[in-house]
Each structure stands twice: as structure tokens, then as C-alpha cells.
Design goal:
- 17% of the residues lie in helices and 24% in strands.
- By secondary structure, it is of the alpha+beta class.
- The chain has a domain at 29-141 and 174-207: q2cbj1_9rhob like domain (Jelly Rolls).
- The strands form two sheets. A six-stranded antiparallel sheet has the order 1-8-5-10-3-2, with helices on one face. Strands 4-9-6-7 form a four-stranded antiparallel sheet, with no helix packed on it.
- It binds fe (ii) ion.
- Fe (ii) ion binds next to loops.
Length: 229
């Protein structure tokens, strides 16, 4: 078999245009409260948690404590609701979604003593979820999100650098006053607290309260079926 001849007159291949489509992106929004808002708020939340749990003794070491999930009803958490509403509104606008209202359906606090972690999970039956960080020291300042595309890890070639295009896990830094908002279906976990203080966060879920009435009709319009007489 002979190879095709290369003609002297054949021009080099060149593009007049190229582009890339970032298809099916997964959005995670982060926002940091101004220190003059976050610092007094975090102190109030810690005091409220102390009142709920009482003294947190060494027997809690490595065991996560979670409150009931009705904290969104408590006045001390109202500033978080306000911040979350603002961030969610911007996010839903970015996604160009048509909706009449979205509300926080549940809110609860997590206390991770040194040595404690949160295993991989998602938040069913809601549209958005998020976390607000009250206390998150170095070595206890990461939340991890997992690639929701199961096929993407079939092939994981070596990479020259880690980035959002080749990773199947991303880590985002957390710190006091930071709000992280993400799709409720997105799997995530929180690694072991390797600091010497508790990691304290407030988690929440958000949903469209009138989803059934106003958002669940089929995505197509009915009409006369031309195939029937
Ligand atoms: Fe979570």
C-alpha cells in the first residue's frame, strides 16, 4: 500500500474561526457577607446554638451534631434568609427561569467537632440547597462537589493541570460569612475537620412553593392531531 502523495501546492490547514460550547454547566454560586454583617450574625448564631445544645462535651468529639430543620422560623436566622433570597434570585435570573416565588423550606445547623465530617449526599425534593458558614477554620474550610455526569469517569487520562474540564471532584474554600448555593441534586460532602475548633455551618433547602399549580404543566402545547379524523 502506498501513501497519498503530498502535493507541493497543498496549503496548510488553517481555520477562519473556532469556538467551544461549554455544554450543560453546573452552577454553584458563592457570596461573602460583608464583615460588619457577618461578624455580629455569626456571634448571634453561635449563642443561639449554645442555647439549643447546651454544653457540647468531649463525648461529641468526631460526632456531627445537627439541629432540627426549622431554624428558618427563628428570628436570629432571618439575615441568612435575606442573603439567600438575594443570591437565589440572581442565580435563577442567570438561569433564565420563569417562576413566581422560591422559599426556604428548611434550615438546620451543623456542628462538626474536630475529627467529624459529612458523607456524600444530595438534598432531595428541593430545587436549590446551600450552606452558610459561621465558623470554618483552616483545615476545616472545604466543601467538595462531585461530577454529576456518571459517564465522565469512564476515561480519566493523566492531566497536565487540574481544572474544571478534567476534574470529577471540585473543592471550594469555605470561610465565616460565606454562602454557597447549588442545585439540590448535586452530590457533595465535607471532609474531616482537621482544625482544633468546631466547624459550624447552617444548611438550607429552597423550593418553588406553588410548583404543582404554576410550574408542572407539560412542556408542550396540545392541539388538533392532524393524524386523526
Ligand atoms: Fe448538604
Amino acid at each position: 500500500m502506498s501513501s497519498a502523495p503530498i502535493l507541493d501546492s497543498q496549503p496548510d490547514i488553517s481555520f477562519v474561526h473556532s469556538s467551544v460550547s461549554e455544554t450543560f454547566p453546573t452552577l454553584i454560586w458563592l457570596a461573602d457577607l460583608a464583615p460588619q454583617c457577618a461578624e455580629p450574625l455569626n456571634d448571634q448564631i453561635k449563642a443561639a446554638l449554645d442555647a439549643i445544645t447546651g454544653p457540647r462535651v468531649q463525648s461529641f468529639r468526631s460526632e456531627t451534631f445537627q439541629t432540627e430543620h426549622n431554624l428558618h422560623m427563628e428570628p436570629v436566622f432571618a439575615p441568612i434568609i435575606e442573603a439567600v433570597a438575594k443570591l437565589a434570585k440572581g442565580g435563577l435570573q442567570q438561569m433564565a427561569l420563569k417562576y413566581d416565588e422560591i422559599v426556604v423550606t428548611s434550615m438546620w445547623a451543623n456542628v462538626n467537632p474536630p475529627g467529624a465530617k459529612h458523607s456524600v449526599h444530595s438534598h432531595p425534593n428541593n430545587f436549590l440547597s446551600g450552606v452558610y458558614y459561621v465558623q470554618s477554620d483552616a483545615k476545616a474550610n472545604v466543601i467538595r462537589f462531585y461530577d454529576p455526569r456518571p459517564q465522565a469517569e469512564v476515561m480519566m487520562p493523566p492531566r497536565t493541570q487540574r481544572n474544571v474540564y478534567n476534574a470529577n471532584l471540585i473543592e471550594l474554600e469555605t470561610k465565616p460569612g460565606r454562602l454557597v448555593l447549588f442545585p439540590a441534586w448535586l452530590k457533595h460532602d465535607v471532609p474531616t475537620n482537621l482544625s482544633d475548633r468546631e466547624r459550624i455551618s447552617v444548611s438550607f433547602d429552597m423550593m418553588f412553593p406553588r410548583y404543582t399549580e404554576s410550574m408542572s404543566t407539560p412542556l408542550w402545547k396540545g392541539g388538533q392531531n392532524k393524524g386523526l379524523r
